[in-house]
Amino acid sequence: MPGGNQLVLLTLGAIALLLALILWARLHAFLALILSAMALGLTCGMEPLKVLKSIQSGFGEALGFIAVVVALGAMVGRFLEHSGGGRALAEWMLAKFGRERAPWAVLTSAFLVGLPIFFEVGFIILVPLAWSLARESKKS
């Protein structure tokens, strides 16, 4: 197994491989990430089965966490939509910003919502709001 400096260089190489696969080979980012992780594990001297198990546990933990966050964000977004909160918020923002500045209203709300939460949740919460703003301002 390589030492400290070699591990850093191998990791940088794996990042370069990841970028090359995505940007130049036009490979899907998820597949490129798996291939880069496999390449890094194998070049570090790990056994192939151990590399696969390590990738599985790492992706599983990350995706499990993200799935819960996205599901909860979707629930909050649905609550906003069904309760009329999204529409009320859109009307209030249009009253404050004016219909001609509706995009700035979305930007401001995205900034405020995005500060304390993850991107995924903010996106899911703001999509119904953006739809409401588009409907109220008659702009797409």
- Intertermini distance: 55 Å
What overall geometry do the principal axes of the alpha carbons give?
A: elongated
Radius of gyration: 22 Å
Counted by DSSP, the helix tally is: 6
Low-confidence stretches: none
The largest sheet is: none
Q: How many independent structural domains?
A: 2
Q: Roughly what fraction of the amino acids lie in strands?
A: under 5%
Total beta strands: 0
Mean pLDDT: 82
User: Which structural class do you get from the secondary structure elements?
Assistant: mainly alpha
Which range best describes the helical content: under 10%, 10-25%, 25-40%, 40-55%, 55-70% or over 70%? over 70%
Order of helical and strand elements: HHHHHH
Entry summary:
This protein folds into 2 domains: 4-46; 66-137, no CATH class. It has 6 helices and no strands. The chain has helices at 4-23, 29-43, 48-83, 85-97, 102-114, 119-137.
Structure notes:
By secondary structure, the chain is mainly alpha-helical. It has two domains: 4-46; 66-137, no CATH class. Helix content is 83%, strand content 0%. The protein is built from six helices and no strands. It has helices at 4-23, 29-43, 48-83, 85-97, 102-114, 119-137. Helix 3 runs parallel beside helix 6, helix 4 packs across helix 5 (102-114) and helix 5 runs antiparallel to helix 6. The radius of gyration is 22 Å and the shape is elongated. The chain starts with a helix and ends with a helix. The model has no long low-confidence stretch (mean pLDDT 82).
